[in-house]
């Protein structure tokens, strides 16, 4: 090392200067490390800095190599939580691009509107009936006067 050669020539270099030279000789990717060392009240000795640089390099090396376990863990999901959202064979799109759902297969969740199992709220008959009661003319009015009042508004 250059420092050893200078010592052989009996030229003394201050420890702070050696530390600063060593800090600025590291690659640019170590900038955060360099700033952290420089921001201390006292600079470490060159030997301490060498040890810290070696530790930092080892930590970066270990961080860059992903383990098999970590890569598999990123792909892991719990089956129970997401089971109802996965596409089954019956819901795979046909060649037309339309979904092919078997009619004998019932919807497994409960309707949020009426609470009955087997359909969704978007296709709930009770919701559609309650939404527009005037569209259901097949039910006779119990009170004929109410019907007259609604049909003959301008008399």
UniProtKB/TrEMBL annotation:
Biased composition (Polar residues): 131-146
Biased composition (Basic and acidic residues): 80-99
Pfam (any one): Retrotran_gag_2
Highest taxon in the source lineage: Eukaryota
Chain spans, region Disordered: 80-103, 130-155
Cited InterPro entries: Znf_CCHC_sf (IPR036875)
Name of this chain's protein: CCHC-type domain-containing protein
Species per Swiss-Prot/TrEMBL record: Araneus ventricosus
């Amino acid at each position: 090392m250059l420092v050893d050669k200078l010592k052989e020539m009996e030229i003394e270099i201050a420890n702070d200067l050696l530390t600063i030279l060593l800090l600025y000789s590291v690659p640019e990717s170590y900038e955060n490390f360099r700033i952290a060392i420089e921001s201390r009240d006292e600079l470490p000795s060159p030997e301490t800095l060498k040890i810290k640089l070696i530790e930092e390099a080892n930590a970066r090396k270990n961080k860059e190599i992903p383990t098999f376990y970590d890569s598999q863990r990123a792909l892991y999901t719990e089956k129970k939580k997401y089971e109802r959202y996965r596409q089954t064979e019956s819901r795979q799109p046909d060649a037309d691009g339309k979904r092919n759902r078997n009619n004998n297969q019932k919807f497994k969740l409960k309707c949020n509107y009426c609470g009955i199992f087997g359909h969704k709220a978007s296709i709930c008959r009770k919701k559609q009936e309650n939404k527009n009661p005037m569209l259901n003319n097949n039910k006779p009015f119990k009170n004929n006067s109410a019907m007259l009042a609604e049909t003959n508004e301008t008399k």
